[in-house]
Design brief:
The complex is a heterotrimer. Chain A has helices spanning 2-20, 36-40, 71-83, 95-99, 130-146, 151-157, 159-170, and strands spanning 22-27, 51-53, 62-66, 89-93, 121-123. Chain A is an alpha/beta fold. Chains in contact: A-B, A-C. The A-C interface holds A 14, 17-18, 20-21, 41-42, 45, 47-48, 50, 52-53, 55-59, 61, 84-87, 177 and C 27, 31, 34-40, 43, 46-47, 49-50, 53-57, 200-201, 204-205, 208-213, 216.
Chain lengths: 177, 162, 295
Amino acid sequence: MNNKYESNKWQEVINWVQTRSLFMLHYCTGCGAIELPPTMTSRYDMSRFGIGPAATPRQADILLITGYLSTKTLRRVIYTYEQMQNPKFVMGFGSCTINGGMYWDSYNTIKQLDKYIPVDLYIAGCMPRPEAILEGFLKLKEKIETGSADGYKRYNKEYEKYKKNQEKVLGEVKRRQ
Amino acid sequence: MRSENELIKLLNRDLNLLSFKKLRKQNISIRFENEELVSGLNYLKSQNYIHLATISCVDWIEDNQFELIYQLFSYEDKISLSVKTRINRKTSKFVTIKNLWGVAKYYERDIHDFFGIKFTGNDNMDELILENWNEIPPMRKDFKTRQYVDKKYDWRQYHGQE
Amino acid sequence: MILNIFGFLLMAFSAMALGLLFIGIARKVVARVQKRIGPPFYQAYLDVFKLFTKNSITHGFIFDFGAIMAFGGMITTLFFVPVGPFVLYGMNGTLLLVIYLMAVAYLGMAMATVGSGNPLASVGISRALTQMLGYELPFIVVLLTLIYSSNTSSIIGIVQTQQSGFMNWNLINIPIGTAVAFVTLLGLMGKKPFDAPIAPSEIASGPVVEHGGKYLAFIMLQHAVSVVVKTALFVDLFLGGGNNIFIFIVKMLIVWLLVTLIGSIFPRFKVEEGVLFYWRWPLIAALLQAVIIIF
């Protein structure tokens, strides 16, 4: 009992630090990539919240999917996501990741990102402005602090479900570490 | 440097054109029979039309034909030339031009991906852009996109939606 | 004996803390140069702490050993560099020893690269070692000049020759050599004109491309210690060292801020351009300084 209480306190400290230091990997296939330079540079400056760009998936905490994903890029996103280290968070960005957006009847664009990898937070809009992105990051921080951003735990727990959905659209997914 | 009219005159003299059309300034489209296309492209290449920008394809489903369009450009005449030919939609077979332009290999693979046209002589017809595709090629007019999407992807359910 | 070990540990941990503080300050300064607000000055501590709480994946024994070798090599270098009044070793020849020990960290990184097998990491580490070839030549010439002029090859000995006032500093005695050493310091630290080895936008942070979680935390700590070691070495050799730890840290901070400011306004050299740059003007200036000092 006592031990559990302590570990919870420790978890709170870890969560607090994680909200203040987030390395972001942006997967720039869609048009949302163009909204990120103003978010990072002097006009909106997201580094004041402790959020910075990471160079590789191994170093990153957040995977930011900026826009539509075709089935071919979805495969790469899954590889990227599985290379990241726990705890990891996914943000879907723009209406294309929510319901397909303007590619709603395209034969090779996925319609719902959260069927294939667990998404912690969506930012709606086509495209979201930098203010919306910053608001999204602040919301994600709140979710991490309360411990409700648990996408990576869900991915481990319901791995079979996600795998089935992935294989439905992609065929076989070769997994490499 | 030739003008558009001089070029058309030259082509009419040396080649057996089905038709020609001046689309706009510096832009001409000409049409060949199937059998004469390769020799025609060969002649055009010797006339400084050395740049193959792309090969594109149109599905004329009512005429039961595919139209192949070879986009050429000359750096001396500054004219871009659309060389067109129509092939049978049923057999959907044509000859490769990879011996004239090496890059044509990839354009032909691309067309094979999206229209299912086979180019004899070009052996490598693996998937270039699509992955694990086993329906009819997606850019054909008889491919029902909506049906395919309904089958493959799930629509998001919203609250209060029937 | 126990006390000695305690001293070593204290020095290592305080160097890490100081280095992380310096990195945080540098991030703030770069942000102000770019008209941003920038992260808080304690951001580097949070980053390292967070990375230690993350999961991490190993790529085999060589990878682990390389990370430890890089970190340990840098800590070992620290023990031979006098930081203010804290002098652990004062024997003759420490100056040359430090130069070679600094290469150990790079070799450790090269080992981790081999273990990870990532091609971008190999590109990064080969760039780092090539660039080392570039900046070490003028640096060694300046150091030999320094050893000749102060008649000793121990760092603490060089510090002692510069005591009793501002006019005895090597900054005044060998000004061209100091300028050359400052330019090579940029390369030693991998700062902006010479950061081709870690170029994040082209080779995805180079040698550390496969380091995640705790491994990256160790690399960040190694970088923090290396900042302290290299600025302390520069202060010892050219700015008269210091008996007072606070004065010494202020001198280190001035050197570090100068390096940061210069780094924040320059674009990046290609690696062969960097090497050619070092072999041209800094080398000529260093040789000129040597001739002036010797004759």
